[in-house]
Amino acid sequence: MATAAPVSPPPFLGDVEATPEHVLLAKEPPHARKAATAGHTWWRVTHCDRAYAREMLAPMSIGLLVLILVLAGNFVYWAINSIVNQGLGLAPVVRLFLLAAPGFAVQGIPVGVILGVCLVLNRAVRDNEVIALRVGGASIPRILAPFLVMALLAALVDWGIVEKVAPKTNQMAESSLMKLMSSSAAPLIESDKYFRAGKYYFYVQSVENKVLKNVMVYERGSGNFAAIAPTTFPSVFIAKSAREDPKRPNLWVFESVIMHLYDDQGRQKSEWPIARVEIPIAQELSTYWADQKGPFSLTSDELSKRIEDLDNAAFDPRKLQEWRVDYYRRFALPFACFVMALLAAPLALRFARHGSFAGLVCAFTLAFFWQGFDGWFRALGIAGRLDPMAAAWSTNVLFLLAGSLLLWRER
Asked: Any residues with CB less than 8 A from the CB of 347 and at least 6 apart, and which?
């Protein structure tokens, strides 16, 4: 009795004929195949990269808007109070808010980056996308590449706002605020204080509407009156008022002056009244007025020049130190986008399995700690306990080291 020939099992779907190339790949160690393909795919932009980049845009925008509103909290309170109690219209207040928004966005963009990284990676881990990418041969650094690239792009945008947009809008916002409040700016020259401008030393009793009241000026060494009374002691005069000539910058006019000259022994040699004295000063005394541009209303070059002028004028050392710290923070704040993304990514990978809100918790925790450390180091820099550059960059360095360590452990 004839028996039926055995039937071979059907081939699995996707089976292919083994060719020499397949045989070689099958014999090749897995780690070698991974090393051979990793270099080929690292720099290639994939659909997954583009998808993650697009997905980050929404949470980044939300984080930016939220922080702008938080930072503008005091302003909103003042605006509501002004509208209700002072009869101001809504339009100028809204305009002021829009002008101030780019300045708030400088700190809002890094927070938006944190939120985008944490939320998107949290979702990717919970949906097992990261596991699928790992099985496909992608390393953790390669998976995080689109997030870090987006952080670098955000840093460039932040720098553009700091250098190009915020200086103009902040200045316009300050001008609008002055008009709304209908009051003159308080001067940085304080009552009963000495300061130096050029080769002259000033004592000002009070300041009203940019007019110095009861001013004492003395010039050390051989000054304008040395030919009248050669002496090693300064020539001194006291004026009822002083103001800068509006038509001739750097020329200050003193009125109702009493001139005092001293002999070589320090005794007063003569005293006589003068109706008007004009003094050319190498730098503008308007440098001292508070309605001039603040640190973030200046470009980097303008701020550097302003600091140099104030340093030569023996300006308030604490205020000068604050401006130096803020000068370096102009560069540190945009770079914080990349630093915080580097730290947020491994944290999001590690805690994603704890629930959908883990990303939000990580984001807000990181933002809180970054703001806290940045404020702490800034205060140390202003107090002179840290170098201005170190005070501005210490938070970034600390977060960069922590992020690098966590990322190395996740690998």
From this structure: 118, 362, 366, 406
Residue 255: burial class (beta carbons within 10 Å; 0-12, 13-18, 19+): middle
3-class SS of residue 29:
coil
Given a cut of 70, whether residue 367 has pLDDT beyond it is yes
Specify which residues 244 forms β-bridges with.
Answer: 252
Strand order in the sheet with 193-197: 193-197, 200-208, 211-219, 235-244, 251-262, 268-280
Q: CA–CA separation, 320 vs 382, rounded Å?
A: 9
Cβ neighbours around 377 below 10 Å, total? 24
By DSSP bridging, strand 193-197 and strand 200-208 are antiparallel
Alpha-helix residue ranges (DSSP H) falling in 211-355: 300-312, 317-351
CB 152 within 8 A of CB 382: no
Supply 37's token pair. Answer: 């393909």
Query: What is the per-residue pLDDT across 56-114, written as a single tens digit (0 to 9) for each?
Result: 999 999 888 888 887 776 666 666 665 565 556 677 777 877 888 888 888 889 989 99
> Quick one: which H or E segment has residue 145?
helix 140-160
Torsional class of 117: left (φ above 0), alpha (ψ -120 to 50), beta (otherwise): alpha
275-299 in b/e burial notation, b at 16+ Cβ within 10 A? eebebebeebbeebbebbebbbbbb
CA 168 – CA 170 distance, rounded (Å): 6
Residue range 287-298: mean pLDDT, rounded: 58
Q: Which residue ranges make up each domain of the chain?
A: 44-184+316-411, 193-288
**Which tokens sit at 18?**
């083994």
Structure tokens at 169: 């809008």
Backbone angles phi, psi at 262, to 5 degrees: -125, 150
Q: Is the pTM of this model over 0.85?
A: no
pLDDT of residue 113: 92
State the Cα–Cα distance between residues 297 and 174, nearest whole angstrom: 9
Give, in order, the Cα–Cα distances in Å from 364 to each of 58, 290, 328, 358, 369. 16, 35, 25, 10, 9
Residue 356 is predicted with a pLDDT of 67
Query: Minimal CA–CA distance to 384: which of 318, 290, 333?
Result: 318
Tokens of 65: 């808007």
Of 224, 168, 216, 178, the closest CA to residue 196 belongs to 216
- Give CA–CA dist 240/257, Å, rounded: 7
User: How far is 133 from 279, CA to CA, in rounded Å?
Assistant: 74
Residue 314, sorted as left (phi over 0), alpha (psi -120 to 50) or beta, turns out to be left
Mean pLDDT, residues 178-207 taken together: 62
